[in-house]
Amino acid sequence: MNLLGIHHVSALTANAKKNYEFYTNILGMRLVKKTVNQDEPSMYHLFYADEYGSPGTDLTFFEIPRAGHTYPGNQSISTTSLRIKQNDSLTYWKKRFEELHVTHGTIKEYLGRKTLPFQDHEGQRLMLISDEGVEGTAAGTPPTNSPIPPEHAIVGLGPIHLTVAALEPTKEVLTKMMGFNEIYADPQQTLFETSEGGNGAQVVVEERADLKRERPGRGSVHHVAFRVKDEDELSTWKKRIEDAGFPNSGLVDRYYFKSLYFREPNHILFELATDGPGFAADEEEEHLGETLALPPFLEADRSQIEAGLVPLHTKKET
Question: Does CATH place domain 6-307 in 3.30.1490.20?
């Protein structure tokens, strides 16, 4: 029973419209689901991914209009990396960021791979990471209706960077309970991977006891989710997590996948999520993300929910 890699990362934004413009028009990702936070339907929940909304490619955002500034620190998911196919694409992206005035760093090597750190308009900490020369978990499919050429497109989530006050408690959960293997360590950080490995199945943990705890706001990450094959395996994971002494949410039906949530010892929220049924459960694949999608248990409240949301036009012109 192995986790199959990263499933999705969910972050916070204060403005759904500006968020949509950045991730589709600048990064060229596809909006595959425009829905609401199922626990708080007054806010949007936007899902950006590859052409098909494949597990392992989803970067999602909860809109909290009054979200304050993020004060970075430990006990956090401090960087989300996004996969591209080849090293040469980083030069393309650096030029694009310069032309569009996107805050970015320099192309550099990170854990043996070429990368380019950057931030969105709200300070979300992101990094492009190249798949060149890296084997393992398969990438997604470049979006077709995108301003980014397919050879340079973002094709999935890469290693997720955690910053914690103490390495060992998180390491114990990742290795002894969740089945990750430690594959690299230096004085600053430790790299773990699961299943087939590679960029789509890795977590980096940095120990920074010198930092204060992060104060999250717009531009911060809420949680990271890991891929589980199906609901039967998710039930088995539930028992494993309970046997290890961790309180958890129990199985939660998110309609597009089934989930379970728990906090590891450094208070970072982990989710386990099934690969299916997927985002085409209630929309045709070619029209994903064009209208407000609601799971069946919220459909009766559609009028009230829509009245409380600022309209967000996401239908692509043909």
Answer: no
